[in-house]
Specification:
The structure is a homodimer. In chain A, about 40% of the residues lie in helices and about 15% in strands. Chain A has about 400 residues and is α/β, with parallel strands linked by helices. In chain A, strand 5, helix 8 and strand 6 form a beta-alpha-beta unit. The radius of gyration of chain A is 21 Å and the shape is globular.
């Protein structure tokens, strides 16, 4: 038996542990009395148009057959043309690989990229904890680079640790767990460093843009399209969050046409998919996606929840980042003690995730993909929690 | 870039190459004139009850949310109780892991099993070629053990090559590419060897039962349930073939409750799934499966096609195995020259796969998951092909 796999299976993520605790609490005191901000399961339903499309598609059982391994051609064509409508990139469909969601996108790309156990992949902290699992599974190791105090990318911190073994950098914007969207000039600083290092090291450094929250932004916030800024890049996309289809496992990898040896890299992604046991992305949802490619779920609840919680927590004296996108609020724990804050919050039936799960100390993540009613009912509990600190 | 992944992506399987050639030919002379026996895409549609279930399920967008990583509890319960209805095994749902089809089942189990680069996994030839990809991706190497002349398992051939590095044995029945179902006594011979070797080597040897064709058998052929015969076993199942849902990627892993450290092995499977980027099996089809768990597609076409082709090829003097199950006919090539036979067949618009793809020489695979019309129309083409040999 493989001991690493056993450990991964045994050590459930801290987030899942909290969720399970929530299940116990819900059974005891009723779901309406538990303010569970632990999980990232989308709250609004998939849009109505998705139901209509599915009703129609299931009339034809041919939609359940294998597609080609990289996806049905009609689907890849539609994804590429939609990217080209939105961004100046000339994305050919021949570099689109349909996947079983964001995790599958990331694993396929990482397995295609990593070639030696000395290889390193940069992640910016705080970061989605499964990145470490995927990078190590692909055979490389993670280098953590701290963001600055506003949770933007920090080129000086990158310069301190980058070396010739760095083969890839993961950038996640809108960000889980901070809700930050990196502005164009912030990304540019990082890309300038990476381009210089590509020259110096004489090998490509792949930027992996993990973008499951791309459309989930507030106001008129713009999410720069990384392949228009950095040549050796690949976008990992998923419809889980923006279309509330998290369980259906559907997304794609878009290899930038400007990448060095783009076609070979694409073939390596296909090879990686093959070796990971991805035969083709779920076919019904491949076809369902193409008919709704410009649609999203209704994000009103997220926008309202983010605003309500941000304003309330600020009024209680808590320090947090006003989210640009995604559905997370990253809150500084009183006295910098995250675990203590989470424990105290539990007494008020508030379930939070400590930031140690995301590679930094002293914060908690609030995942506000819940009903507005839950958020509104939680406000007095937050007030009571902070009164305990202030008495 | 990873060179192994690039090679896997570049070297499309021989089966896919032939299918692509078929696409060209179809465009030239019309689909009805091409007798394409290359692919294993199920022919009959998914059963009507599946469409009805899907129509109903898609009314509730909550079915699209994440389930737990090993699958929704209600689904795991139903799968376990169905196994227990059919076989005397006492399968607990706590050892059921829902997967994205057979390839995902196999990869999760192999990654959970393999712990050292010296580890070896036995496959019996001829065999499904992706086994080699999955085993090597998990970090082990394949040992090929030839079946006997009737394509049954051969314990003497196993004894010749088994050594202490063997950690697992893959058994695929009904078999792709031969259509053979291994009888109970044949399996027992192999299990007796393995049990003795487990003693001798003082470590478990896991039997991986790859069973995507379990229900697809002809007449009253019985497929023995391996966990009732061998303790250290795990079943990899998929609904792709038996329910004609190949594109939807839905199946399961059932760890035998009799396995040594069954719960730990199950957790290692969960850990492997996590490290491969499997978040949960597609949720809509998890729920769709439980409502139709005792249903299959209508296999009449397969039964008729198998009989028609077997009888016709025998009448032409070709030597082949009368299939017990699955939808493949394994035919001895005239003069033992498989590639030549496939090339000659192409002139008659018959597309066959040479057995070198399956680890043996001198045979071709006919995949008869096509319409009865296609099979009937192909008979004169087979006659003409054999006349060329006999003139």
């Amino acid at each position: 038996m493989n001991s690493k796999m056993l450990m991964l299976g045994k050590k459930r993520s801290a987030i899942r542990e909290i969720f399970e605790f929530g299940n116990k609490l819900r059974a005891e005191i009723g779901a309406e009395n538990v303010y569970d901000f632990s999980l990232g399961n989308p709250y609004p339903p998939a849009p109505d148009c998705m139901r209509e499309t599915l009703e129609k598609l299931v009339q034809n059982p041919a939609v359940h057959a294998y597609t080609s391994a990289p996806g049905a051609q009609v689907v890849r064509d539609k994804v590429a043309s939609y990217i080209n409508e939105r961004f100046p990139i000339n994305q050919p469909s021949s570099l689109i690989y349909m996947t079983e969601g964001a995790a599958a996108s990331l694993c396929s790309v990482l397995y295609a990229t990593v070639d030696s156990k000395d290889d390193k992949v940069v992640v910016f902290t705080p970061y989605f904890p499964e990145y470490k699992v995927f990078v190590e599974s692909a055979g490389a190791s993670v280098i953590e680079v701290p963001c600055n105090e506003e949770f933007k990318l920090d080129k000086n911190n990158l310069l301190k640790v980058i070396d010739k073994n760095v083969v890839a950098v993961i950038i996640n914007s809108p960000n889980n767990p901070t809700g930050v969207v990196y502005p164009k000039e912030n990304l540019q600083e990082i890309f300038d460093v990476l381009k210089a290092k590509e020259e110096e090291y004489a090998h490509p450094i792949i930027v992996i843009a993990d973008e499951p929250y791309r459309e989930l932004v507030y106001g008129d916030k713009e999410v720069p399209y990384i392949p228009t800024m950095y040549d050796n890049s690949v976008v990992c996309y998923s419809y889980s969050k923006v279309m509330s289809l998290a369980g259906e496992r559907i997304g794609y990898v878009a290899v930038s046409p400007k990448m060095e040896n783009a076609q070979d890299f694409f073939l390596a992604v296909c090879g990686a998919g093959r070796s990971l046991g991805y035969v083709c992305a779920p076919s019904l949802f491949q076809f369902a996606i193409v008919e709704n490619i410009d649609k999203t779920s209704d994000f009103t609840t997220y926008a309202n929840n983010g605003k309500t919680l941000y304003n309330h927590l600020k009024s209680l004296g808590l320090d947090c980042v006003n989210p640009d996108g995604a559905f997370y609020l990253f809150v500084k724990a009183p006295n910098g003690k995250a675990e203590e804050f989470c424990e105290k919050a539990k007494k008020y039936n508030i379930l939070l995730v400590p930031s140690t799960s995301f590679g930094v100390d002293g914060y908690v993540r609030i995942s506000y993909c819940v009903s507005e009613k839950t958020v509104n009912s939680s406000l007095p509990a937050f007030t009571a929690l902070m009164q305990e600190y202030n008495k």
